[in-house]
Amino acid sequence: MPLADTSLNAPDAASRIDKLLSAAEAARLLGLQPSTIYDLVQKGQIPYIRLFGKTVRLRESAIQKIINDSEVEATSIATLPIALKRRHNKPNGKATPDPSLRRRGRGPEAVN
């Protein structure tokens, strides 16, 4: 049985090799400053590759994993607190809580 061709000359080698990003490129993807990326590297909080003793590179797949793992699911309106559901709009466009939900005995705006 022949072994799979794992050389870099294989037709699909480019798809197996992960793109290496500079700190600036990784920072742009994450919405951070490059200095923050270097801080994370120094603290060992982000995986990196050090080339030629000084140059820092980050795998694109590692950055994508950070983004995917940080995603927070949206909350549906059915699970929002009642106070948020009962908001109404003032003429100036600002939303305010329903007055019936105000606490009693707390200053002049309290409902008795």
Globally, the shape reads: elongated
Helix fraction bin: 25-40%
Low-confidence stretches: none
Question: CATH first level of one domain: which class?
Answer: Mainly Alpha
Topology:
Layout lengths: L12 H4 L3 E2 L1 H8 L3 H10 L5 E3 L3 E5 H10 L12 H4 L2 E2 L5 E2 L16
Report on the architecture of this protein.
- With 112 residues, this protein is of the alpha+beta class.
- The protein has a domain at 17-69: Multidrug-efflux Transporter Regulator, Chain: A, Domain 2, CATH 1.10.1660.
- Helices cover 32% and strands 12% of the residues.
- Helix 2 (23-30) packs across helix 3.
Keyphrases for this structure?
112 residues, Multidrug-efflux Transporter Regulator, Chain: A, Domain 2, 3-stranded antiparallel beta sheet, 32% helix, 12% strand
Summarize the structure.
With 112 residues, the protein is α+β, with helices and mostly antiparallel strands. The protein has five helices and five strands, in the order αβααββααββ.
